[in-house]
Amino acid sequence: MSHAAAPKREMPESLAARMGAIRLLAHVLRDGRMLGDGASGLTGPAAARALRLAGLVLRHMGQADEMMRAHMDRQPAAKVRDILRLALVEVFVDGAAQHGVVNDAVAMARMSPRTVKQSGLVNAVLRKMVDDRSAWDALPAPAMPGWLRKPVAKMWGQDRLAAIEAAHLAGAPLDLTPQRPVEIEGAVVLPTGSLRLAGGQVSLLPGFETGDWWVQDAAAAMPARLLGDVTGMRVLDLCAAPGGKTMQLAAAGAQVTALDVSPKRMRRVFQNLERTGLQADVLEADALKWSPEEPFDAVLLDAPCTATGTIRRHPDLPHLRESRDVEALTKLQYQLLDRALGFVKPGGRVVYCTCSLLPVEGENQIDAALKRHPGLTLEPADPVTLGLPAEAAVAQGLRLLPDLWPERGGMDGFFMSVLKRPETSA
Length: 426
Ligand SMILES: C[S@@+](CC[C@H](N)C(=O)[O-])C[C@H]1O[C@@H](n2cnc3c(N)ncnc32)[C@H](O)[C@@H]1O
Hints:
This protein is an alpha/beta fold. The protein folds into 2 domains: 13-137, NusB-like (N-utilizing Substance Protein B Homolog, Chain A); 174-420, Vaccinia Virus protein VP39 (Rossmann fold). It has helices at residues 13-29, 44-59, 61-71, 78-92, 98-111, 119-130, 133-137, 146-156, 158-170, 222-225, 244-251, 263-276, 317-320, 323-342, 363-372, and strands at 174-178, 188-189, 195-197, 213-215, 234-238, 255-260, 281-284, 296-302, 344-354, 377-379, 393-394, 397-400, 414-420. The strands form 2 sheets. Strands 5, 6, 7, 8, 9, 10, 11, 12 and 13 form a 9-stranded mixed beta sheet that branches. Strands 2-3-1-4 form a 4-stranded antiparallel beta sheet, with helices on one face. A hairpin with a 5-residue loop joins strand 2 (188-189) and strand 3. Helix 2 (44-59) crosses helix 4, helix 3 packs across helix 4 and helix 4 (78-92) runs parallel beside helix 6. The model has no long low-confidence stretch (mean pLDDT 94). S-adenosylmethionine is lined by residues 239-245, 259-262, 265, 286-288, 302, 304.
């Protein structure tokens, strides 16, 4: 007797995306890797959906875990926990239909020998939890980890902290820095000159192939602008990759040297320059060891930092960073700042910036540098002439926070300052 092979049934996209989201959660929470580098194992719309779901879980994980603690005596194994987290967030935050979510959660638990025994538990506990909306609604709003909340609340107060955390939940729009006028349907021109879109596939937008613009948050586009007219100036972009600020400076007419220590990230600088047709001298070097043959007119130092100003677009960050990262980063920042100050001519300017919410990576670095270097001065930075809210002005420069421009969709957290070397060496 011959048997015809059973036709292979295609997995529905919703289940494939949920499985992809579970893989992404393991990638972040257990492997300590960043979201968004293809770890879902999917492509196309299912990959995008998996990424969105994993991001949603990472944003609301505190609430999901609290809900599980209230309904379960013992916490299940890591993968089962992720399956339950995803289901809770899909039902309570994303508004997904309960039965589909529960069925897929049970199906996912059954798929692996390590979790199959817990599929009954997933079914029973999930049915109870998804029926308990009032318990979910009573949970406190998602919050940043304590090591981040404390310094933010101390510096800007509880109300500002709550507004920043709300901005993180709202996510981020897509901002573009144009180098020439470009028409993109649905794009709004921000007061700072960036173009803002709700989202979309970047490579399909008009002007991508021709390099008319590059993706850059409106806040990230501000540090290079602090140098004013750079036409013909020799500017060093220190810590340059992937090259957002290099492109801005080159487009503004500077003779740019772009330096970064990471070969992988440097490839992005080359690709970006090639696509936009802009020019810069590109150097792969460690700024702590390298020295220029001739000092520069200006240096822009976009120092490595906790990147906590970008949590809106990177919900994995609070799960990947720890308070102990801060000490090593602040040390590297002041070393890099001292190097940058040594790379400019007497009277030359150094823009120091970080995409961090933490004053120790921003305001405090400038206070300390002014103490370390007698004769070093602060140059004024006026937010209003750049199109920013007046409240962005602080003693050390400009402080941008994610809750600024709430009606326009916010901006990344950023700190920036302009320092001027004395005309004569002390
Ligand atoms: C915040 S990112 C720079 C973003 C970039 N300025 C832009 O606008 O696209 C910080 C960069 O510092 C680089 N970096 C870290 N330590 C460095 C060092 N010792 N020397 C040179 N670059 C370094 C990292 O490789 C990373 O690309």
